[in-house]
Write a structure and sequence with these properties.
Layout: H1 2-24, H2 30-36, H3 40-69, H4 74-96, H5 100-119
Helix pairs in contact: 1-3, 1-5, 3-4, 4-5
Length: 120
């Protein structure tokens, strides 16, 4: 179960690596526009804000990776904390921006959290 939990945490981290790339580097590109359903004008005006969001998602990635490499009990605690952060951010994003965020971010984090708790 610990292996499955680790893989699920790594998957959540990988999702957020992709989000970092989209928000920080691809925001104004056709791929970024499609991913977030924005117009070129909006993307141009909000690029700095998106890069800031991307940086925060990068901190989530760093925390999840830290949880994966740290020895227990610290690794376990860090995974719980950062998965909780992803879940809260995903729920908030779903409530304020798009329900799709719930599926893309929060649901994988909930599944990983359940696996981590079961393995712990």
């Amino acid at each position: 179960m610990a292996t499955i939990a680790g893989l699920l945490v790594a998957l959540v981290a990988a999702i957020h690596v992709y989000i970092v790339i989209l928000e920080m580097f691809l925001w104004r590109t056709p791929r970024g526009l499609r991913a977030f359903g924005t117009t070129q004008a909006f993307a141009d005006e909000s690029a700095t804000l998106a890069a800031n969001q991307g940086l925060y998602n990068g901190f989530l990635v760093a925390g999840l990776v830290w949880g994966l490499v740290a020895a227990d009990p610290v690794g376990f605690q860090v995974k719980i904390f950062f998965l909780g952060c992803v879940i809260v951010a995903g729920v908030y994003g779903a409530a304020t921006v798009s329900r799709r965020i719930l599926i893309v971010q929060a649901v994988p984090a909930v599944i990983a959290l359940v696996a981590v708790l079961a393995a712990g």
